[in-house]
Amino acid sequence: MGPSSSDSATVETPATETLLGQIVEEYRRPLHRFLTRLLLGQQELAEDLVQETFLRAWRNADRLAADPSKIAPWLYTVARHVAIDAMRARQARPPEVSLPDLNRVPTTDDEMDRVVNVHAVRLALGKISPEHRAVLIEMYYRGASVAEAAMRLGIPEGTVKSRAYYAVRALHAAIGSTESS
């Protein structure tokens, strides 16, 4: 029983090498787009799978050279199967979990960090508009719901939501400017 064509090394002739170069040049970008769509935008994985597809093309260069009209269908079929295999492999193993950088996680015992954070927020609150400040105080310091804040401030609920959104953004920007000074 002889080795199968996918297990044996392909002997590259100049014609085979030229054909493989043309295949890579012509199909690299279209295959990458095709795989990126199949993988829901996972560009890096798509790049890896394009390489795997071309590796399989190299292993089957003699079959591809025999009928050049079947190169594109063969490549797209292989690429699709490679993508399906990759997704099945990811589902078969547990999801990867990234650990937080423990050097940046605040400890509960660090009172000085809390004091610095409170000071930074107080400085930043003074830098945002009075309307934004009032919404933040109602919602975050007094714990009011959107409806309660709207009633206390005498403005519509939609305005409270909008101001809260922009107030948080303004506060982040103001905190960034207080940290750099």
Automatic annotation (TrEMBL):
Gene Ontology biological process terms, A to Z:
DNA-templated transcription initiation
Indicate whether Transcription appears among the record's keywords.
yes
Q: Which residues form the RNA polymerase sigma-70 region domain?
A: 23-91, 124-171
Is Transcription regulation given among the entry's keywords?
yes
Q: Which domain of life is it from?
A: Bacteria
Any single GO molecular-function term of the entry would be: DNA binding
- Residue span of the signal peptide, if any? none
Supply the alphabetized keyword list. Answer: DNA-binding, Sigma factor, Transcription, Transcription regulation
Which family does the record assign? Belongs to the sigma-70 factor family. ECF subfamily.
Read off the PANTHER family from this record. Answer: ECF RNA POLYMERASE SIGMA FACTOR SIGL, RNA POLYMERASE ECF-TYPE SIGMA FACTO
Question: Known NCBIfam families for this protein?
Answer: sigma70-ECF
UniProt-recorded name of the protein: RNA polymerase sigma factor
